[in-house]
Amino acid sequence: MIFQTRPNPLEDFLNLLGFWDHILTGFITMIWLYGIALVIGFFLGILLAIIRQYGGKVLSQVSTIYIEIVRGTPLLAQTLLLFYLPTTLGIPIMGWEVEFNFTFLEKDMTLTLFNQAIFIGIIALSLNSAAYQAEYFRGAILSIGEGQIVAAESIGMSRLSGIYHVVLPQALRRVIPSWSNEATYLPKYTVVVYFIGVKELFREANYIMTHPYIAVTPLTIYIFIGIIFLIMISLISKGLDILHKRTGIPGL
Amino acid sequence: MEVLKGISFKVLEREVKVIFGPSGSGKSTLLRCINMLNPPDKGDIFLRGKNLNDPEINLNAIRARIGMVFQHFNLFAHLKAIDNVSLGLRRVKGFSKERARAKALETLDRVKMVKWADHYPAQLSGGQKQRVGIARALAMEPDVILFDEPTSALDPELIGDVLQVMLDIAKSGTTMIVVTHEMGFARAVASEMIFIGEGVILERGTPQHFFISPKSERVKKFLEQLDILYGGHDKLLQHSNGEGSK
Q1: Domain count of the fold of chain A
Q2: DSSP E strand boundaries for chain B
Q3: How close does chain B come to A166, measured CA to CA in Å?
Q4: Does A182 reside within a domain?
Q5: What's the DSSP call for residue B46?
């Protein structure tokens, strides 16, 4: 029923553009979740990789187990688990939210940057991304070789200082090409927050699609969303390429 | 597995000890024990009367006083030559940026590498890398510098420059423990040579002792082999120094 053909694709597309405010807020919400999760996942991932590599027997095991559990279970399951955890444990649900109401080009828009669902979504995406990023970082650290940290220690630097001043600057440069995988996967994974009620791009698409008296076909919407992602991810990919070249050092 | 057994020797200030012996005999392990990169399971190491095996001791502070030059250079790949030398000065000795830079340049000058100060390790030849490695250790002004086969990963034509630098710093009064098979170098500056085989000291003595009348057959054989392989450098060093016996 939903996929019945429409007589005029152009009209259909114009109808979709009429919802630009919804697409815009959905897009911003998605970028917001993506950006925060990527950054938190980045630092957490570095920490996990360093602990796994240099943390000693016990801590290294803990880090490994964390990474394996996260990578071995579905992101959707993790998100829903975290979403239902507070109620199950009897922790009161947060009532507060950060919301912007504004009028732009004669459209009244509501942009929610923070509420319980978004908070849970950010945590889930960050914890998940951290595990994947940790493995990219660990690979880069392994590729550097033991000799570098031994040399740092031989001039009296502490292990931590050696990791910070010698291992990380090299690992971070080397990791960019493989890490770009995670940076380009994550925007697409943000869709899981749809299932806990965050108004991101796909939820807005659903809203547009089921609008009672303005008709837009799913085909139009999803092609449009696909193009948005394609452009955005091409830009991210290109940006990381430039970063890789800019920060490059001969021999690294 | 026991690698080193009952090895005991003393290094005085400004002395150059040369340690040599067949591969797998524990020479590198010995050096890594001395600067506590591989702390020994048993036995004591003293640096100016301080026992390094004391669990209370700050190993990082100790390592800052024991320089190390590696067989494979181990230069920090992301840093220019000058920054390789100044990193320890800044992060360990707490030098200011300018002071560390000045000291690094001065040290690079001692190893004749000032011209390459702004080159990254990948842009240097093996011999140049090793000279930066020596400068990195030297700049910290350690009590002793350990050399772990510093020339054995180098192309033959690059060895001379590195040995020359090592001779210079030996003559300037740096205390050195050198694991090497460069007998020309040993002959020129070693105050004592120690032959290690299977983890024990098989023979020790002055270079004259070793080159004129080594006692054990094992050492004699080893030196003959070396002579076939490395004989050429002796002449080179004698030439550049105008000394050395024979």
Answers
A1: 1
A2: 16-20, 46-47, 50-51, 66-69, 144-148, 176-179, 192-197, 200-205
A3: 7
A4: yes
A5: E
Examine residue A89 and state whether it is found in any structural domain, yes or no. Answer: yes
What domain range is A156 assigned to? 27-200
Asked whether the beta carbons of B14 and B173 are under 8 A apart, the reply is yes
Q: Is residue A155 part of a domain?
A: yes
Q: For residue A100, what are the β-bridge partners?
A: A111
Closest CA to A139 of A185, A184, A170, A175: A175
Identity of the residue in A148, A154, A161 whose CB atom sits nearest the CB atom of B68: A154
Cβ–Cβ contact A146 with B under 8 A? no
Contact B122 A165 (CB under 8 A): no
CATH of the domain at A172: 1.10.3720.10
CB pairs under 8 A between A and B: 81
pTM of the model: 0.86
Token digits for A133?
């990023």
Element (H, E) at A109: strand A107-114
> Residue A228 to residues A26, A202, A224, A235, B24: CA-CA distances in angstroms?
11, 12, 6, 11, 62
B120 → closest Cβ in A161, A169, A249: A249
User: Cβ–Cβ of A250/B76 closer than 8 Å?
Assistant: no
Helix-, strand-, coil-residue percentages of chain B, each rounded to 5: 45, 15, 40
- Which of B8, B52, B32, B1 shows the shortest CA–CA distance to B196? B8
Tell whether B138 lies on the interface with A, counting CB pairs under 8 A.
no
DSSP A52: H
DSSP type of residue A5 = P
Per-residue pLDDT 10s for chain B (246 aa) are 788 888 899 999 999 999 999 888 889 999 999 988 888 888 889 999 888 888 888 999 999 999 999 999 999 999 999 999 999 999 999 999 999 999 999 999 999 999 999 999 999 999 999 999 999 999 999 999 999 999 999 988 889 999 999 999 999 999 999 999 888 899 999 999 999 988 899 999 999 998 888 888 888 888 888 777 665 555 545 545 544 444
What's the Cα-to-Cα distance from B191 to each of A27, B135, B195, rounded to whole Å? Answer: 75, 23, 14
For residues B120 and B27, what is the distance between their CA atoms, to the nearest angstrom?
30
Does A150 contact B37 at a Cβ distance shorter than 8 Å?
yes
Residue A1 lies in a domain: no
CA dihedral (B202, B208, B211, B216) positive or negative: negative
Is B1-65+143-241 a domain of CATH 3.40.50.300? yes
Give the DSSP H/E element, type plus range, for residue A99.
strand A98-104
Amino acid at residue number B38 = N
